[in-house]
Amino acid sequence: MSQDGIVLVASVSIFNDDKVLIIKENKPTAIDKWNFPSGHVENGEDILYSAQREVKEETGFDVKLIGTTGVYNFVSNTNNQVILFHFVGEVTGGSLNLEEDVISDSKWIKVNELVTFENKDLREPCVIKQIINNLLQKKIHPISVYNEQLI
């Protein structure tokens, strides 16, 4: 969702045992860049639902959100102000089925291996590295800090 130049994004680190899933995006603004599954929050959409929807669309997995590393505010490489809500989740169903034409690759890796990626290979490297640092330091807050949208 974009409002007055602000883009809202939901992002998820999906864990399976001690490994996290990363995807390689093939989008016009992020060609061959590694990232966590993420995308825009749709108008009127609950942030928690948005995070789960984006994971399903990009990877084919159903996830349960179990925590958050926080909210990140930054100016993107496309010069948009972005407010990114980053969650931690675990797979509850589905199977790996990458979104065609948007995601070109994926891999399960240990969190400490994420620090070996070079900035040029990451989408929004400063933010991704903050998220990685929070994951490594286990700075994960309870999902209960978010209130689900009341309808």
UniProtKB/TrEMBL annotation:
- Start and end residues of each Nudix hydrolase domain: 5-132
Recall the GO molecular function terms of this protein's record.
Answer: hydrolase activity
Q: Which Gene3D superfamilies match?
A: Nucleoside Triphosphate Pyrophosphohydrolase
Give yes or no: UniProt keyword Hydrolase: yes
Give a yes or no for keyword Iron-sulfur in this entry.
no
User: Keywords of this protein's UniProt record, alphabetized?
Assistant: Hydrolase
Question: Which domain of life, per UniProt?
Answer: Bacteria
Give the family this protein belongs to, as stated in its UniProt record. Answer: Belongs to the Nudix hydrolase family.
Name the record gives this protein? NUDIX domain-containing protein
